[in-house]
């Protein structure tokens, strides 16, 4: 949450000497200097660097990692050494496990990454020094700097280690009104959320939210921490409700989403409030409470209209159409879906076009208006070609084929029932060609009249 000013890394004596022989050094060294055998290095140093001390010789002989560790111990930073040594051991274990899982895993050993070792030395020793003086805010800042530095996909376990350290230290800080503690809860919430432990994440986000209530604290981008807490809670509650709905625990899902809606209103952010209403409406729909679902989704529609947010408005109309369809109010559902299509076309949202067209096709197909069903399924099929999604194309093909078959079935049945010469000729022609059969005039008239009602 807090952006720390960049600090010049202070390297210890042995590390500074040893860094000159690293492959990443700007200084060009003779090949003989890189020979690992002890006798060759000693001879080289004796000839070229007379007067070097034993520690300087050791700096050239030992690995950079070893020099860092020796400097920590020599300077009396025993806690930093213990922590770094434990991290290096875990680093090696995880690296070996990852190598077994993937032949393309190219993470370097820690000893080949001097910049990371420099950061460990710099911030760990500063944190230990501050801890001795009980300057806990400085301890937190240094540990958090390490967490930020290791915020990369392959190093997130290191980041999480320092998030946990920050959380423990934040409990000891009493001079900032609880801001560092709030930030630490946010970091722990993220840690658990990424790990899929949503209940634990929710607990930390709730503490984050509680600590920031009534505060005007901001993060480095100028956003209020309380708003971030609301967003984090809403996100976690939604993920929890998704699991509950999947397991058909509708009451629990609705209860947690009602809580999310209350938090959204408290955050005084209309977009966030609308999102909360949307997911609550879907939960009521899943539970079969259609009337309540429609009321909640109407709130989302009103918020989206006020914000002039077309994409959210389209999503609101689509959700309302599902509710109306479940209630059997097909005329109103069709009106909503046609609004979705209009908004989606204006905003080039092809996936929304496919979904709305498919829903319209299903409604018309169910009611027996096969010509209109085929028309919308054809629109969906044509649009899926632009999405380059083979599974979606195959799914729409099935819908389209069923509607066309139903449309053809009406005509054939009517020709069979009529049983005149013209009807027989049409049936024989169709059997020979197996192409589209000429639409019977009576059926064509029927479909045209019925489609006007929709």
Automatic annotation (TrEMBL):
Swiss-Prot/TrEMBL keywords: Cytoplasm, Repeat, TPR repeat
SUPFAM superfamilies in alphabetical order: TPR-like
Keyword Cytoplasm: yes
Location of the protein in the cell: Cytoplasm
Broad class of where this protein is predominantly found: cytoplasm
Keyword check for Disulfide bond: no
A Pfam match: TPR_16
TPR repeat residue numbers: 354-387
UniProt cross-references to Gene3D superfamilies, sorted A to Z: Tetratricopeptide repeat domain
GO CC term, one of those recorded: cytoplasm
InterPro entries: Bac_ResReg_Asp_Phosphatase, TPR-like_helical_dom_sf, TPR_rpt
GO terms for biological process, alphabetical: cilium movement
Its biological purpose: Axonemal protein which is implicated in axonemal and/or peri-axonemal structure assembly and regulates flagellum assembly and beating and therefore sperm motility.
Protein name per Swiss-Prot or TrEMBL: Tetratricopeptide repeat protein 29
Species of the source: Orycteropus afer afer
Gene name per UniProt: TTC29
